[in-house]
């Protein structure tokens, strides 16, 4: 029974995929796990060493050293020691096949796609060879995991990171300050009344002046005659 479904090699500094297994599962859960693996690959520089992210039906395991990291999607039944032993074997094979200069100069995804055949062989070995034949290697990895446990992430961690990388920063809503108006004092009321009275008196005065000028047009001409002299 297969317990390791997918594996890939990525460059740590920018998450560039260098090689990957070509077998592909088309279930929705697996496709979602692939998306989360891709997002996690962009953040491997934050998690040097070993780590795992648990999903609903699958687990993502990764192991990085230097500028190369290996990642795998495994079933929940796959022991952690087996997953990390597989990743360590994959890492040694890849770094033995390509030097750091070639890895650093890679500019396109899957620049070392021919390494897929090696991934397939190693994956088949771990899926179908009995664990008793790998006992010493598994025991060594198990001791290392007990001494230094891997970083444990959640699916939510990868989703939040994906949102931040796409420019969707988490929003923190705060309650708007509650302003209260001060009660009007007696002095304020008196000032308001006086202003209203002054405005009313000015309005009445203006109306009376307008009525007077309309009723006695001679006063207007007299005023014009006086101003022309």
TrEMBL record:
Coiled coil: none annotated. It is a multi-pass membrane protein. Keywords: Endoplasmic reticulum, ER-Golgi transport, Membrane, Protein transport, Transmembrane, Transmembrane helix, Transport. SUPFAM superfamilies: SNARE-like (SSF64356). Residues 8-119 form the Longin domain. PROSITE patterns: LONGIN. This is Vesicle-trafficking protein SEC22c. It comes from Propithecus coquereli (Coquerel's sifaka).
């Amino acid at each position: 029974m297969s317990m390791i479904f997918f594996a890939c090699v990525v460059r740590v500094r920018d998450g560039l995929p260098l090689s990957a297994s070509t077998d592909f599962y088309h279930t929705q859960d697996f496709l979602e796990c692939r998306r989360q693996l891709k997002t996690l690959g962009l953040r491997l520089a934050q998690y040097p060493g070993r780590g795992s992210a648990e999903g609903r039906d699958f687990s993502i395991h990764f192991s990085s050293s230097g500028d190369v990291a290996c990642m795998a999607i495994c079933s929940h039944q796959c022991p952690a020691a087996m997953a990390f032993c597989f990743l360590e074997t994959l890492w040694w094979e890849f770094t033995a096949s390509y030097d750091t200069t070639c890895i650093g100069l890679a500019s396109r995804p899957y620049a070392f796609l021919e390494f897929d055949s090696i991934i397939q062989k190693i994956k088949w070995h771990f899926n179908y060879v009995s664990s008793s034949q790998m006992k010493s290697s598994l025991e060594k990895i198990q001791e290392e995991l007990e001494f230094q446990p891997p970083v444990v992430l959640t699916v939510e961690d990868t989703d939040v990171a994906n949102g931040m990388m796409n420019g969707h920063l988490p929003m923190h809503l705060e309650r708007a300050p509650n302003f209260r108006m001060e009660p009007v004092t007696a002095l304020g009321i008196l000032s308001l009344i006086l202003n209203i009275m002054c405005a009313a008196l000015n309005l009445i005065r203006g109306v009376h002046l307008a009525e007077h000028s309309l009723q006695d047009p001679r006063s207007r001409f007299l005023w014009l005659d006086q101003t022309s002299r």
